[in-house]
């Protein structure tokens, strides 16, 4: 029995008089064939597909956002600038801190560059890597080379063994038929 969404119009002695929501036609239906609409029940497969698609889109957005973030080079803080009137021990300390600051900036720059390359690769993998390749052998079923051959004379591991050579048709003279008579091309 098929299930169709309908609205009950009236109660009759034989059952219910219903109007089908999709088509609009009306019909009297047996009470055994009527069920209430189950609200809140969701097809698990449809829900899983919806969640998977939302997750996929979120990952794509995250990858695109990470790829678009560019490295902003920060300038040297004012407290690390070496002043001419600084004592020698303060200058040495500031030089060490400047060196550490520049190393940290260089590492951040390398990390941003590496993340961009990684995101570009991941984006490529999610779009291009999943495409099915169509080619000469794409529809052919792959068989193991160690499969037993069909012919009892064949050898295991030797592709095409036991089949023999291709038979060619013997070359003969070609005769053309013209008006029911044979015409010879010599």
UniProtKB/TrEMBL annotation:
<keyword id="KW-0539">Nucleus</keyword>
<feature type="compositionally biased region" description="Basic and acidic residues">
    <location>
        <begin position="143"/>
        <end position="153"/>
    </location>
</feature>
<dbReference type="GO" id="GO:0005634">
    <property type="term" value="C:nucleus"/>
</dbReference>
<feature type="compositionally biased region" description="Basic and acidic residues">
    <location>
        <begin position="177"/>
        <end position="186"/>
    </location>
</feature>
<feature type="region of interest" description="Disordered">
    <location>
        <begin position="143"/>
        <end position="186"/>
    </location>
</feature>
<protein>
    <submittedName>
        <fullName>Survival of motor neuron-related-splicing factor 30</fullName>
    </submittedName>
</protein>
């Amino acid at each position: 029995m098929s299930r169709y969404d309908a609205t009950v119009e009236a109660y009759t002695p034989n059952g219910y008089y219903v109007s089908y929501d999709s088509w609009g036609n009306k019909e009297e239906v047996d009470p055994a064939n009527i069920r209430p609409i189950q609200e809140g029940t969701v097809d698990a497969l449809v829900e899983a597909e919806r969640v998977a698609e939302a997750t996929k889109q979120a990952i794509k957005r995250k990858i695109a956002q990470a790829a678009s973030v560019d490295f902003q080079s920060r300038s040297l803080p004012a407290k690390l600038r070496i002043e001419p009137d600084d004592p020698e021990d303060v200058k040495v300390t500031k030089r060490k801190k400047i060196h550490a600051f520049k190393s940290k900036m260089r590492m951040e720059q390398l990390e941003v560059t590496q993340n961009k390359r990684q995101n570009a690769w991941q984006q490529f993998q999610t779009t291009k890597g999943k495409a099915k390749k169509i080619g000469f052998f794409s529809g052919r079923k792959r068989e193991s080379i160690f499969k037993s051959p069909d012919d009892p004379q064949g050898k295991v591991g030797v592709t095409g063994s036991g089949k023999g050579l291709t038979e060619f048709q013997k070359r003969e003279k070609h005769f053309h038929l013209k008006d029911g008579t044979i015409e010879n091309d010599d």
